[in-house]
Amino acid sequence: MFTGIVEETGIIKLINTDSGNITIECKKVLKDTITGDSIMINGVCTTVTEMTEKSFSVRISPETLNITNFSNLKQGDIVNLERALTLNSRLGGHIVSGHTDCTGKLLSIEKLNEFYDLTFEIPTSSKKYIVYKGSITIDGISLTIADIKNNIVKVALIPHTFENTNLKTLKTGNSVNIETDILAKYVEKMLSAKDNNDSRISMKFLEENGFA
User: Fold this and answer.
1) How far is CA 81 from each of CA 44, 70, 137, 165, rounded to the nearest angstrom?
2) Residues 109, 170: contact at Cβ < 8 Å?
3) How many Å apart are CA 41 and CA 44, to the nearest integer?
4) Angle 39-44-46 (CA atoms, 0-180°, nearest 5)?
5) Rounded Cα gap, residues 165 and 195, in angstroms
6) N or C: which end of the chain has fewer CB within 10 A?
7) Helix count (H) and strand count (E) of the chain?
């Protein structure tokens, strides 16, 4: 599990989509990390297969390449990095699994004084998990949804988030990895009449207890 709070950005030094090998140069996330640990790269949970003093390597499966924007990455690209959550970590963002649901497309970046509004188009199939003022993970960054219109999502960024993640490198039309709020998926599962005929949880229950 992760929080969506990016610890640092790294630089891709080697990427081979045929073999799935990726090597990333970084500093902070290497501390206390050993082979076999999990590091989230642009919102994707990966397993460290090799390490040096300045980099770590992972292998990406064909399925991950198909679902994420990893097939578009190239040497020199900047990526967001976060080590897996520990029991004594602060949950500064929200609960993030590192399992990308889909990719979205950047439509616009608007600077408002020192702040930024970014607008993304997401697949229609994922919009049911999106709520106003709810959480969304974009390239591994925990963000709050500022506006929704159909499958168009706007997020508002403070200067620190924009300057310390890969968002500052994005251009209109670029693809990003999207993970919707995992809690929404569990609620959907529990409300499914097919799977939960005897469940005591209903929409009325959620409304009465302040969850909807």
Assistant:
1) 9, 14, 13, 9
2) yes
3) 5
4) 40
5) 40
6) C
7) 4, 12
Query: Nearest CA to 103 among 153, 172, 175, 154?
Result: 175
* pTM exceeding the 0.85 threshold for the entire prediction: yes
pLDDT tens across 142-185, in order? 999 999 999 999 999 999 999 999 999 999 999 999 999 888 88
Residue type (1 letter), 192 = S
Cβ(45)–Cβ(98) below 8 Å: yes
Joined tokens for residue 110: 């608007």
Strands 141-149 and 152-157: antiparallel
- Entry field: residues in the chain: 212
Torsion of CA 121, 125, 128, 130, to 10 degrees: -30
Does 205 score more than 70 pLDDT? no
What domains are there in the chain, each with its CATH number?
8-83 (2.40.30.20), 102-187 (2.40.30.20)
Q: Classify residue 178 by burial, with Cβ atoms within 10 Å: 0-12, 13-18, 19+.
A: buried
Spatial contact of 103 and 177, defined as CB atoms under 8 Å apart? yes
Tokens encoding 36: 């076999």
